[in-house]
Amino acid sequence: MNVLAIDIGGSKISFGIVDSENGGVLFCEKQKLPEKTDANLLLEIIKVNCAFILEKYDFGKIGVNIPGLADTKNGVWVYAPFSGINNFPVSKILSDLYGREVYIENDVNSCAVGEKLFGCCKDTDDFFWVTISNGIGGAIFANGSLYSGCGGNAGEIGHININVRENNNNILCGCGKYNCLEALAAGPGISKRFEISYGEKLTAEEIARAARNGDINALQIINETGYYIGAALSSVINILNPKKIIFGGGVSQSFDLLEPGIKSSLDKYMFKAANENIELSRTALGYNAALIGAAAITVN
After folding, report:
1. At the N or C end, where does the chain have fewer CB atoms within 10 A?
2. 42 Cβ partners below 8 Å, 6+ apart?
């Protein structure tokens, strides 16, 4: 069955038609979101794109990724620190518009479900999926099933407080706390830390590119970013004892640059005797992992 997959991000939104039997992406369209995007504007963007897709494709279900807290039972986008959107009844609105069954899920949870069904964790029952993009989120697979927690919000690694090094500049997170992993190591946090340290405003992508070209300042920021990520993952690993850590999201495109810092931090903070065989790898689903995940959550 074809599924209309919608992945709502912090700075972009993606639409796809995905074969829910094999995870194949038949159509994909991405567009940037305005810097200030409220629920009404987002809905209009979805309507325009869905009208175009309906002219070309048939689909049986709709899967939607929510960048933040999601009430999957009632189909409500509860809250997103990045945009401030809250209590948005996504499922009812889209179901009323298109007459299809609508499923919503936290975006990282969707990615983890997709990885389990179609990616490198088909034979892995215990793993942790982490997205590093405009925000940072995590998802837990334990004993072969997605673990959601009592309120459906388990895995929020992005809001682990990081105090592993001096002078981390007390950066405010969208959640209202200082020095969350998301505030320091997501794309905007990388950019902000570089600007504070060196007085130049570059995107995370530009900083990664400079690091590849040997820029010492960029390499320092990237290495520290990996170190912060590893520090948070150490707590996750010590508690969950997963077999694998899977990385996704735009910033993780530079995983090879981040990996030395991550491993350095794991070496310092992780309980190695209990987790000596932990595997770190990028998602096998590539850049469309989120769209594939949005389709995967519709599979019963």
Report:
1. C
2. 8, 13, 33, 85
Separation CA 155–CA 177 (nearest Å)? 17
Which amino acid is present at 147? Y
pLDDT on residue 85: 87
pLDDT for position 165 = 54
Whole-number Å distance between alpha carbons of 100 and 276? 46
Neighbours of 268 (CB within 10 A): 12
Q: What is the pLDDT at residue 104?
A: 97
Find, among 146, 147, 189, the residue nearest to 168 by Cα.
189
59-91: burial string, b at 16+ Cβ within 10 Å, e else:
bebbbbbbbbbbbbeebbbbbbbbbebeebbbb
Ordered mean pLDDT values, 10 residues apiece, the chain (300 residues)? 93 94 95 88 94 93 93 92 86 95 96 97 97 94 95 92 66 89 95 95 97 97 97 97 96 95 96 96 94 94
For 287, counting Cβ atoms within 10 Å of its Cβ (0-12 exposed, 13-18 middle, 19+ buried), the class is: middle
Q: What is the helix (H) or strand (E) element at residue 27, kind and residue range? A: strand 25-32
Tokens of 263: 């491993």
Q: Which two tokens stand for residue 166?
A: 């001096």
Q: What region, left, alpha or beta, does residue 167 occupy, with left being phi > 0 and alpha being psi -120 to 50 degrees? A: left
Q: DSSP letters of 170-185?
A: TPBPTTS-BSBHHHHH
Q: What is the pLDDT of residue 186?
A: 96
Helix 216-240, helix 204-212: angle, nearest 10: 110
Tell me the DSSP string of 69-82: EEETTTTEEEE-TT
CA distance 148 to 89: 20
